[in-house]
Amino acid sequence: MDKIKILIADNRRDTRELIKTYLSKDRLIKVIGEAENGKKALELSMELKPDILLIYYNMIEIDGYEVTEKVTSELRDTVVIMTSENDDISLVKKAMFHGAKEYVVTPFLQDTLVETIRSVYEKEFLKKANHEVINSKGTHNDNKCKIISVFSTKGGVGKSTIAINTALALTKQTQEKVAIMDLDLQFGDVLLMVNKEPVTSIIDFINQCDEYTLDNLKLFMHDYKGVSILASPVSPEFAEYISEEHIVEIINLLKQEFRYIVIDNPNNFDETTLSALDASDTILLISTMDIVSIKNVKVGMGVLNSIGYNDEKVKLVINKANEKFGIKLKDLKTVFDKNICQVIIEDVKTVVTSINKGTPLVLGFSSSKISKCIYKLAEQLKK
Ligand SMILES: Nc1ncnc2c1ncn2[C@@H]1O[C@H](COP(=O)(O)OP(=O)(O)OP(=O)(O)O)[C@@H](O)[C@H]1O
Ligand SMILES: [Mg+2]
Fold first, then answer.
1. What burial letters (b/e) apply to 124-138, b meaning 16+ CB within 10 Å?
2. What is the CATH number of domain 4-134?
3. DSSP bridge pairs for 6
4. Which distant-in-sequence residues (6+ apart) come within 8 Å of 134 by Cβ?
5. I need a surface site. Which of 8, 121, 336, 378 has the fewest CB within 10 A?
6. Segment (H or E) for 289
7. pLDDT digits over 321-359, tens only?
8. Where in the chain is the domain with CATH 3.40.50.300?
9. Measured in angstroms, how far is the CA atom of residue 287 from the centroid of ligand 2?
10. Which of 161, 342, 347 has most ligand 1 atoms within 8 Å of its beta carbon, as the pocket-test mutant?
11. pTM, full prediction
């Protein structure tokens, strides 16, 4: 194992010296730099790209949280551990919210500090190795196929509605082949939303096929108005039999034929979701305009940043937009500190009629305002 490269950032010289003394006794750890203020911590992080930035929360010039957020969003391979003399749970949460992976309370015990560094490093190292294995199997995309994940860290925000309608809009606009993968493996409802019986699903393909080929996979997919749908299992208990390797394999098969793959994801970061997000060119991160959704999606955005997905990959979509309830779209731009890629208006009447008729919005209500929002979204995704 290579040595773990550490950058120490603390305003207090004595503390830096103490940390250095503690860490110098461990043969697997190497201190590669030290910073006496937040600005220097940021500069040195960018220059030295440490494995771990050990940073005091209350840095001068730029505070520890801001440095953490910048470092974790820009340096995919650097992990931040925050230090503080305060073990108040709200500060710990704040540290995590800004992207820190661990929080160590001072005064340090040498063993605790070394143990924390080693275990954070090992965990991240394994995670990275795991992703590299998956990527080496070819989930990363060639130019022919574009993979679009619809994702949120809050339920009921309209992911499935957006996934189906965006897929249909893409076929209409491009005449290209489009597939939908329902990866909400426990509670997926894509097929139901287009009024089709879920006779076969992903689990049948996995269990019944000796050979994982595209032709075999297509036997288990459902055609609907020009899109091919791979449904989720009919019952939640099947989800545990589906692994990230299955997902990678299926995406690779779909890539052979489809120009666009739209993935409807669940509201969590489990391994199957992560493999789909990793394989995606674009992640549509969906939020509605209520405080709970905004808070959860903001946390989700932090996690996506800390995985290393940049602004180019993660696009913010606001659904059920309605400024009547106290929050304005311009407030959201500030809260998320990100441009909104597309706003989809709230239109309960059209949406409920569309569901009751079993006809997706862009097909049955193509001239409605809400469908126009979805067409605009698809337009941006075509490229
Ligand atoms: N723009 C909109 N205007 C009004 N209602 C909407 C809009 N978008 C979605 N809905 C409604 O919100 C509800 C949730 O939508 P949907 O099932 O697509 O969300 P989801 O994020 O996939 O939910 P889940 O987390 O359960 O998978 C549905 O009743 C849907 O019809
Ligand atoms: Mg859904």
1. bbeeeeebeebeeee
2. 3.40.50.2300
3. 31, 52
4. 244, 245, 248, 275, 278
5. 336
6. none
7. 999 888 999 999 889 989 999 999 999 999 999 988 889
8. 143-381
9. 13
10. 161
11. 0.69
